[in-house]
Each structure stands twice: as C-alpha cells, then as structure tokens.
Amino acid sequence: MKESKVIVLRRETALKQMFEAVSQLDKTKEVCFDTRCFDGHEEEGDNFYRMFELAMAMKARSMKIPFVSIDKTKVS
C-alpha cells in the first residue's frame, strides 16, 4: 500500500511546494495537491499548471522517462 499525503497549496508558494513534494517522491508514495487556492484566480492557476507541467516534462526528458500530461480537471 502506498503512503498518501495531501498538500494544501498556497498561491504565493504553490510552485515551490509542488517541486519540493515531487523531489521527495518515490514509488511507495503518492501525493495529492489541494489547489483551491486558485479558486477565483483561474488565470493564475492556468499559468501555474503550465509552468509546472513544462518543468516536469523537462525533468522527465532529462531522465529519459515518459511524461504524462497533468489533467487539471481531475486535480482538486
């Protein structure tokens, strides 16, 4: 069974929080992000997802592993 953790993002530090969480992941851990901080700030949220997705795609490419795009409609 995977260890699960919920991280409540803050708009001011959301990217930093996600990168820190992702850097600590391994195959035994699962992280869910609470993105309600972007409710009412949809443009900022869209920019956040684009920047995070680009950075993760670049990381995956450098590690020569496949990258699966984030489906933000399933992120809560």
Task: Write a concise synopsis of the structure shown.
The chain is of the alpha+beta class and 76 residues long.
Structure description:
By secondary structure, the chain is an alpha+beta fold. It has one domain (3-74). Helix content is 41%, strand content 16%. The protein is built from two helices and two strands; from the N terminus they run E-H-E-H. The protein has helices at 14-23, 42-62, and strands at residues 3-8, 29-34. Strands 1-2 form a two-stranded parallel sheet.
Number of strands: 2
Spatial shape: globular
Largest sheet: 2 strands, parallel
- List unreliable stretches of 5+ residues: none
Strand content: 15-25%
Order of helices and strands: EHEH
How far apart, in Å, are the first and last alpha carbons? Answer: 22 Å
Strand order of the largest sheet: 1-2
Cα-atom Rg, whole angstroms?
Answer: 13 Å
Q: What structural class should be given to the helix and strand makeup? A: alpha+beta
Helical residue percent band: 40-55%
Mean pLDDT: 82
How many discrete domains?
1
Count the DSSP helices: 2
